[in-house]
From TrEMBL, chain A:
GO CC list: cytosol
Protein name: Acetolactate synthase small subunit
Matches recorded under InterPro entries: Acetalactate_synth_ssu, Acetolactate_synth/TF_NikR_C, Acetolactate_synth_ssu_C, ACT-like_dom_sf, ACT_dom, AHAS_ACT, AHAS_small-like_ACT
This enzyme's EC code(s): 2.2.1.6
Entry-linked SUPFAM superfamilies: ACT-like (SSF55021)
Pathway: Amino-acid biosynthesis; L-valine biosynthesis; L-valine from pyruvate: step 1/4; Amino-acid biosynthesis; L-isoleucine biosynthesis; L-isoleucine from 2-oxobutanoate: step 1/4
Domain ACT: 24-96
Family: Belongs to the acetolactate synthase small subunit family.
Molecular function (Gene Ontology), one example: acetolactate synthase activity
Alphabetically ordered keywords of this record: Amino-acid biosynthesis, Branched-chain amino acid biosynthesis, Transferase
Biological source species: Methylobrevis albus
Gene Ontology biological process terms, A to Z: isoleucine biosynthetic process; L-valine biosynthetic process
Catalytic class of the enzyme: transferase
Signal peptide bounds: none
From TrEMBL, chain B:
Residue span(s) of domain Thiamine pyrophosphate enzyme TPP-binding: 403-550
Annotated EC: 2.2.1.6
GO molecular function, one term: magnesium ion binding
Protein name (Swiss-Prot/TrEMBL): Acetolactate synthase
InterPro entries: Acetolactate_synth_lsu, AHAS_TPP, DHS-like_NAD/FAD-binding_dom, THDP-binding, Thiamin_PyroP_enz_cen_dom, Thiamin_PyroP_enz_TPP-bd_dom, TPP_enz, TPP_enzyme_TPP-bd
Gene Ontology CC terms, in alphabetical order: acetolactate synthase complex
Species assigned in the record: Methylobrevis albus
UniProt signal peptide: none
Necessary cofactors: Mg(2+); thiamine diphosphate
Amino acid sequence: MIVAGETRSAYFLQEEEKRIETHTLSVLVDNEPGVLARVVGLFSGRGYNIESLTVSEVEHEKHLSRITIVTAATLQVLEQIKNQIARLVPVHRVIDLTHIGDAIERELALVKVAGKGDHRVEALRLAQAFEAKTVDATLESFVFELTGTPSDIDRFVKLMTSCGLVEVARTGLAALSRGKDGL
Amino acid sequence: MTRQMTGAEMVLQALHDQGVDTIFGYPGGAVLPIYDEIFQQDRIRHILVRHEQGAGHAAEGYARSTGKCGVALVTSGPGATNMVTALTDALMDSIPMVCITGQVPTHLIGTDGFQECDTVGITRPCTKHNWLVKNIEDLPRVLHEAFRIATSGRPGPVVVDIPKNIQFQTGTYYGPKSSTKSPGYRTSAYQPQLKGDEAAIRDAVALIAAAKKPVLYTGGGVINAGPAGSRLLRELVKLTGLPITSTLMGLGAYPASGPNWLGMLGMHGTYEANLAMHDCDVMVCIGARFDDRITGRTDAFSPTSKKIHIDIDPSSINKNIRVDIPIVGDVAYVLEDMLKVWKQTQPTQDKAALNAWWQQIAVWRAKKSLGYRRSKDVIMPQYAVERLYQMTKHRETYITTEVGQHQMWAAQHFGFEEPNRWMTSGGLGTMGYGLPAAIGVQAAHLDALVCCIAGDASVLMNMQEMSTAVQHELPVKIFILNNQYMGMVRQWQQLLHGNRLSHSYTEALPDFVKLADAYGCHGIRCEKPDALDDAIAEMIEVKKPVLFDCRVANLANCFPMIPSGKAHNEMLLDEDATDDAIGSAISAEGKMLV
Ligand SMILES: Cc1ncc(C[n+]2csc(CCOP(=O)(O)OP(=O)(O)O)c2C)c(N)n1
């Protein structure tokens, strides 16, 4: 039971929450015109960060899309972000996958490298080590396809910079919670 | 009910089916088919304004004074962009409003057509939701959904953008009940929660019962919960004996004459209200949102209290101030359940502690923080509001305001006894709100006294609407506290900027009495305190719209005031507002704040 005057206001208990954390939010929305603009506009309008954003229709009959957003904020602001997204009319659910813990997170990258001789051999060897697929090859270039966690991809791309990296395209994060339950 | 009709007919039919009797609007190319339908019917009264912003604020005034949804109709392009301020205003103050905008025909969208603008793009951040209707089959469903979204949960404005070719097309109309059978209907994700969590309500009751220094802090959410909200709030106050204060938006939910009333709180709130907030041990926030005008410095806000927060919008909770017991739900539902629990459990309160608390409050009250220096020679603005109140309180009176000092003096010195009688722009602070809002209120309450307490600067922002009032025989009384200055700006310049009055003096004010004449309404000027009562009586008697030029003391300041960046217990009162105190009232850091 709560007794009046027992502790100070909860406001003062929040000091440690100044720490910035990176969280992955999964948002189920009606796939209707403007829905992505609503979510993105909310982030820019209220000064929240978007580090990665992925969106695609996931259930055609029900017109549902899933938006996966990676954002960095204090825990208090993260709670606000969740509440603000949930308030949008076409939003069905929002969950904080990082808060639930141990979510599966994957990203796909296409990585183009160009070069000759040793660079070429080294690029191919590294690609094999990362289990990247070669999806295009010419006498002077490769395009590799790699799926993994964002940090796997970061490492791969970093290594490729010394093997003639030309450009990179990344999909942004797709994420799901583990276990039998869905959003 | 399903029937074949054109899109324009559907608009009128849907408005009728939603119980709309009055709309505010302005025609133009992209809404001509709808105007043609308006011409051919007489179920819905159309009030022609002079500027689309006026239509928006009039719809807000109509909504706030009736509890119903306000409706505005404007054309594409400039018609829609002129609505943006009113939409934002309604969003900030949670006012239900449906705004229908015309749009260029679908095949011209995206071509920079004449009077094309991205209405849904522009209004997305200033509406609760909006739609561009590209297919006639979607129109009836969207229209009904627009009313549902605007009026349910935390109310707000919505926009339905209808291209002109859709207004001409024929399709099947579905009524509000049968609209679930219309093509494309899907159950909406938006289903606001009305009932509060039972366990949280029990905890809240226990916390209130055990409190030694409790305070109720209420807001516009109580008014939005309908008549039941205010009734249940009054019952709660009676049952618990708690002192009660309210935000600007919540005035009237509890009567100003009630024994437990502390007056308004916040930046220009009373001493007793703000100190009770600062020193309390249990704060019960009901339908308010811990806005910065209320909290002052957040890290010094009510440092020793446990906080209960009742709000229908989950995103309001823990946004600015962390609370101990959040309860998401409609104020009326939650209060009803709280009262039930209180009556069941019959908790014993600490009478001795509560007595001591009331004694402390009496000491604060004795400061008479709303006091001001009276004068025989000039009309003090506070005196003008007081007299207006005394001379209108026995009538059905509705007050709207513009924005500035006069707004705060109205809130401080006019006693509001009932909900829905007070219309003011709180969240956005929109100069130009009050006059058109009064027109909207009068349109809903033809026989009532509707008075806009205005400033000389604000009133000019939508002055053109006097012409609307005259045309539609809406006898609004515009009571201008004319101090020749943008008073609130001048006050801040005095407090923060070494009294350098940069562009806050309105050099070439119009002669308001002649202006009244030009509009075909009635003009009154009053310059002396002893002539005021007669002049007010004349204003009330005249059956026309009135522009009342009340000449007040030019340099009066609005006190009490919590300077920006200060805490509740650091407020400035009229008596200690010496030049020195004023000069050092605001720290360098405070000057950064608005
Ligand atoms: C549309 C708009 N522009 C600017 C402001 C900033 N502002 C706030 S109060 C004020 C002065 C209002 O002067 P007046 O209407 O004469 O009222 P007074 O303060 O003198 O009572 C101004 C310019 C505002 N609130 N709204």
